[in-house]
Amino acid sequence: MHAGYLRASKDDQLTENQRIKIQQYCEGKGINVTFFSENESSRNTRPIKEALLQRVRRGEFESIIVFRFDRWARSLSELILDMQSIQDAGVNFISITENVDLTTSTGKLMFGIIASFAEFERNLIRERTMAGLDRARAQGKTLGRPSGAKDKRQRSPDGYKNRYRRLSGHVLLGK
User: Fold this and answer.
1) Which of 22, 101, 144, 162 is least enclosed, having the fewest CB within 10 Å?
2) 3: which residues sit within 8 A by CB, 6+ positions away?
3) Catalytic annotation present for 168
4) Topology annotation, domain 2-119
């Protein structure tokens, strides 16, 4: 059995393009895939990924397939630690965009290089964002929600602003 992991960084982003590419890859290889989709994940909490890792450790999957390394991990250290854990469980990790085979020395070298560039790109984005915020502050702009302002939309008892919420890429009706 093979697991496909999809992740979007924000609630308004979709994982459908990742799903299509992974499905095409799997059809080309003649393998079946079970998808795990995560939306609205934060830097420290990705419950779908953690549940998948637990199933990997129990030996339920022979491989994890992702669209790109950066969809799996947000930092080089996280990626390396996860890859070690996955390989220790005897599970293959396939990134279809980078086309890296982690069972070879060359694949491991390429993995390190690609992962370093992914982290570099993420850091550049953060630096540009921080520079933009600093510029806005220097121009006297107020950032964030104005103090004392109330959100006029009624919150439901579970804390969501409306009756709809996303979980694992699917829209669910609230209470």
Assistant:
1) 144
2) 33, 34, 35, 36, 52, 55, 56, 61, 63, 64, 65
3) no
4) Rossmann fold (3.40.50)
